[in-house]
Design a protein that fits this description.
By secondary structure, the chain is α+β, with helices and mostly antiparallel strands. It has 2 domains: about 30 residues; about 70 residues, no CATH class. About 60% of the residues lie in helices and about 20% in strands. The protein has 4 helices and 4 strands; from the N terminus they run ααβββαβα. The protein has a 4-stranded mixed beta sheet with strand order 3-2-1-4. The longest helix has about 30 residues. The protein is elongated.
Length: about 120
Amino acid sequence: MLDFLLPFVMGIVIGWVIVSLFRAMQAINQVLAMSPESQDTLVKVQNETLVILEVEPVDDQFLCYNYFTKEFVCAGRNIEEIRTRFAARYPNKDAAVAKGDPAALSILTQQLKALDENCTSK
């Protein structure tokens, strides 16, 4: 009985190691295939210098939450207020609005584009 059981268990362990190595290689290849900007973003998220925000519209303002921890971060009536209040609360961090209500994301994206156009035209 032991003659059968030991090779069976060893086969399972070796198979598990091979599958784990294969998955690790796939993850490494995905990271290497990323653009440099995406790699920088990934590093910032891992180092907790980039906060991914989830936006929820409430009445006439936008409430921003940390996407991963669901912690309240800031609120604002427009993208400028959100940027100002985020910077006041987290002076050494960047933010990216990536999740939330589609209508709110659309509005904030338009405001951000208009703000960037105004900054580049000056």
